[in-house]
Design a protein that fits this description.
Layout: E1 5-11, H1 15-24, E2 30-35, E3 40-46, E4 52-58, H2 71-75, E5 79-86, H3 90-99, E6 104-113, E7 119-127, E8 135-139, H4 143-146, E9 156-165, H5 169-180, E10 186-187, E11 195-197, E12 203-206, H6 211-220, E13 223-231, H7 234-237, E14 243-249, E15 252-257, E16 266-270
Parallel strand pairs: 1-4, 5-8, 9-12, 13-16
Antiparallel strand pairs: 1-5, 2-3, 2-6, 3-4, 6-7, 7-8, 9-13, 10-11, 11-12, 14-15, 15-16
């Protein structure tokens, strides 16, 4: 069982637009190159704890529907597309998924060539026939090939919460209990209605309580709808990040990034 986020994928049609939006709110993406499929390319926003935000889009001349990763999400400019856990052995993790009754796609070998010509290689595996579950990864080359170093922002720590939109919260919680031994959800005040966290894990769940989430699930299916980055103090974070109004997250504060592309999709939450 792994409860630490390796990275999350935020997708759209144009990588330039994703990178520009990130820069405008105070995040600093580094271009990471094309994936070995040749159909997608990406940029990395690294965080001090080693986790990172992956911005991903089709390569020039590639139809989003033909993208090797999350084609439906990229075509819809849907933002949150997938989330990843690092594991010591992808094949062993795939076997554990199968033993838990979860179908797998993989393990697969994957790679991308950085702009400096260095080849980054890893093994990965997707689980389930939807995107509620995280995919798994294990580096075949040194991890710092994949994740660039970052200067330490004293307020920002790294990825903390993946919010998964689901039409049946209890069924999704049962899936995570079976596959990852995650505990039962606990209702809290948060950024969505019918919102709950799974204590000690990076996962939160929400059911549609408005037309926006209903429409999202209709378009791209159940799965991640928002990502939250942990900060030590929102007031300090505002010194370098462009954030919207404060929202309650249980007894803590959170805020969305102040950009149309990230509103209700990417935000920050104070750590305990």
């Amino acid at each position: 069982m792994d409860r630490t986020i390796d990275h999350v994928a935020f997708g759209g049609m144009e990588l330039y637009e994703l990178r520009t939006a990130a820069n405008e709110v105070g995040l600093t993406p580094t271009y990471g190159g094309e994936h070995s499929t040749g159909t997608t390319h990406m940029a990395v926003v690294p965080f001090p704890d080693g986790s990172y935000l992956e911005l991903i889009a089709p390569t020039l001349g590639t139809d989003a529907e033909d993208a090797g990763f999350w084609p439906t999400h990229l075509a819809a400019d849907a933002g949150p597309a997938g989330w990843c856990l690092e594991v010591p052995d992808v094949a062993a993790s795939a076997k554990a998924a199968i033993d838990a009754g979860v179908p797998v796609d993989g393990p697969h070998e994957a790679a991308r060539e950085r702009p400096d010509g260095r080849l980054v290689e890893w093994d990965m595996c997707f689980e389930g026939d939807d995107l509620r579950l995280p995919f798994t990864i294990h580096d075949r080359t040194p991890r710092d090939y994949r994740v660039p170093r970052t200067s330490h922002n004293t307020a920002v720590r790294g990825l903390r919460t993946v919010v998964v939109a689901t039409r049946d919260r209890e069924a999704t919680a049962s899936l995570f209990a079976r596959r990852h031994r995650y505990p039962s959800p606990v209702d809290i005040n948060g950024p969505f209605t019918n919102f709950a966290v799974l204590p000690g894990t990076p996962l939160a769940l929400c059911e549609p309580g408005d037309g926006e989430l209903d429409a999202r699930i209709d378009e791209v299916g159940e799965g991640p709808c928002a990502f939250l980055i942990g900060v030590t103090d929102i007031d300090r974070a505002r010194q370098s990040l462009s954030l919207g109004p404060e929202i309650r997250f249980s007894d803590r504060r959170m805020a969305w990034f102040d950009h149309d592309l990230f509103d209700r999709r990417l935000g920050v939450v104070e750590l305990h």
